[in-house]
């Protein structure tokens, strides 16, 4: 039978999945990006320094990653030498955004796939937020309205967590996580000016110099976030995983892994990064080559040529193209389908033995979960890798604040040349993000973004290879083909952002 899952809730933008289910097994899955945006067209002819502002409007969740990728691309294109304070402030803004994003993703976007929100009806304690939630759910359910207790109910049918105390504890953390996310965003805004859409990030640094007040406020906020990560976020993931151990095997993508590396720690130039860049193909890690990336459009709603390199990128919308089923392009690395995101980021680093803390944390939690490193390619593997990333990033940010020098500049001084081209690559929360800029006569001649969810939620490529999410869905057993809670859990584990994917 054919079942369209969609619109899928608890993700950003408009995604649906066309599934074919035979004998309760998903035998085919098509990832459908349902809208067109065209930022790369909007950017043509503009002042280059508009790019890190305009590309942030691709998304309200990961705007800083776009600003940073754009700044790196311009730093490369124009030979701008960012001073250490500039690099560090970029990191402090972007890193705090990762922490916000991981907590948002687990608690608000994924946990309720497993946590039983109706357990709140059994709550008899005195926490005022929990009693308020209980009384509200009770009143909603008694109201007889068609969709009571939204956004918690209705929900997909399936098995939810049975332990009442665990459910109620997780719901408490669901609400606390909102407050902690606010702290992470406030920390980003100290150096970034505001959240979302920073006004301070520029090629070469930030528009303000750091002072002691900034540093101490930032540290105090990140300390609170770090405490939550260690005391609530990691234990909650492990507790939920313990109740659903099959999800260490479900949702396995069938290609390689790509990460551009995250958070350069100096010294400039050619600074190494906290998370190593690399691509894993057939189990082997290699250095990343941007020239190996091409974007196929056989199944995408574009009439521009298929298989173009990033620097040649083109975008001619063709809404009625017969073979197409998505507005998302299909990027491939040397023809290989790859997964990007926290799982890929951690696996690439682990495979290279680059960051000893990442290695230690992966080994520790893999042992607790009773999985091999291979198990990171799964629904809970992706959740665990976000949590491991959060631990490593929080410590790094606190250490970075100590490297800021209030007496030194936060921004390079430069004049933009008449022409130039450059790539800028970073890791957004959802994975590998690449920007390319070409400038002629002081204006943007071409701009290309190859975005995390474009990789993960791509349709099939010119060789009919499925995208990473499609491949993770195919072969999955579903109890109830009409609803497919299992597929929803897999989709959410990738944390898709369709606003970014179609940009
Ligand atoms: Ni709109 Fe984004 C991240 C980017 S995902 S959230 O993270 O880039 O495609």
Report on this model:
The protein is α+β, with helices and mostly antiparallel strands and 503 residues long. It has one domain: Cytochrome-c3 Hydrogenase, chain B (Orthogonal Bundle). The protein is 41% helix and 17% strand. The chain has a four-stranded mixed β-sheet, covered by helices on one side. A hairpin with a 2-residue loop joins strand 2 and strand 3. The longest helix has 32 residues. The chain is globular and about 65 Å long. The two termini are 32 Å apart. The model has no long low-confidence stretch (mean pLDDT 97). The protein binds NI-FE active center. The site of NI-FE active center has 17 residues, from helix 3, helix 11 and helix 14. NI-FE active center binds next to helix 3, helix 11 and helix 14.
The termini sit apart by 32 Å
Structural class label: alpha+beta
Strand order in the sheet with the most strands: 10-9-6-14
Q: How many runs of DSSP E, i.e. beta strands?
A: 17
C-alpha-based Rg, rounded: 22 Å
**What value does the average pLDDT take?**
97
CATH homologous superfamily designation? Cytochrome-c3 Hydrogenase, chain B
- Largest sheet geometry: 4 strands, mixed
Just name the CATH architecture. Orthogonal Bundle
The geometry reads as globular
Q: What does the oligomeric state look like here?
A: single chain
Strand content: 15-25%
Helix content: 40-55%
Number of domains: 1
């Amino acid at each position: 039978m054919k079942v369209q899952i969609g619109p899928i809730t608890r993700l950003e933008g408009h995604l649906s999945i066309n599934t074919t289910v035979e004998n309760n097994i998903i035998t085919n899955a098509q990832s459908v990006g349902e809208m067109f945006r065209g930022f790369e067209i909007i950017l043509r002819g503009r002042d280059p320094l508009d790019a890190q502002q305009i590309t942030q409007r691709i998304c309200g969740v990961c705007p800083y990653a776009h600003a940073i990728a754009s700044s790196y691309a311009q730093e490369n294109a124009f030979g701008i030498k960012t001073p250490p304070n500039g690099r560090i402030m970029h990191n402090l803004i972007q890193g705090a955004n990762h922490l916000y994003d991981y907590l948002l993703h687990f608690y608000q976007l994924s946990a309720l796939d497993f946590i039983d929100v109706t357990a709140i009806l059994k709550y008899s304690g005195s926490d005022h937020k929990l009693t308020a939630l209980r009384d509200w759910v009770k009143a909603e359910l008694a109201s007889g309205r068609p969709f009571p207790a939204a956004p918690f109910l209705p929900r997909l049918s399936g098995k939810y967590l049975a332990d009442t105390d665990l459910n109620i504890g997780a719901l408490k953390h669901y609400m606390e996580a909102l407050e902690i996310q606010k702290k992470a965003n406030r920390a980003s805004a100290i150096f970034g000016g505001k959240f979302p859409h920073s006004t301070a990030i520029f090629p070469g640094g930030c528009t303000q110099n750091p002072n002691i007040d900034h540093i101490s406020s930032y540290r105090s906020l990140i300390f609170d976030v770090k405490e939550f990560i260690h005391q609530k976020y990691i234990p909650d993931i492990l507790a939920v995983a313990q109740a659903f151990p099959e999800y260490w095997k479900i949702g396995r993508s069938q290609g390689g892994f790509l990460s551009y590396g995250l958070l350069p720690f100096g010294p400039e130039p050619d600074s190494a990064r906290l998370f190593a860049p690399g691509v894993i193909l057939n189990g082997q890690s290699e250095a990343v080559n941007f020239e190996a990336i091409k974007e196929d459009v056989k199944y995408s709603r574009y009439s521009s040529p298929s298989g173009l390199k990033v620097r040649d990128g083109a975008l001619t919308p063709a809404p009625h193209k017969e073979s197409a089923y998505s507005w998302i392009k299909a990027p491939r690395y040397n023809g290989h389908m790859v997964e990007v995101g926290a799982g890929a980021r951690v696996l690439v680093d682990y495979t290279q033995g680059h960051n000893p803390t990442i290695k230690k944390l992966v080994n520790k939690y893999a042992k607790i979960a009773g999985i091999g490193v291979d198990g990171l390619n799964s629904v809970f593997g992706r959740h665990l890798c976000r949590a491991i990333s959060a631990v490593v990033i929080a410590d790094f940010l606190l250490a970075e604040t100590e490297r800021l020098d209030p007496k030194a500049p936060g921004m390079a001084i430069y004049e933009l040349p008449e022409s130039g081209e450059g790539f800028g690559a970073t890791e957004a929360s959802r994975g590998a993000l690449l920007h390319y800029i070409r400038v002629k006569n002081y204006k943007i001649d071409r701009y290309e973004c190859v975005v995390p969810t474009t990789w993960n939620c791509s349709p099939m490529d010119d060789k009919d290879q499925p995208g990473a999410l499609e491949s993770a869905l195919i072969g999955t057993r579903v109890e109830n083909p009409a609803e497919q809670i299992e597929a929803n859990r897999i989709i959410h584990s990738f944390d898709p952002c369709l606003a970014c994917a179609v940009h």
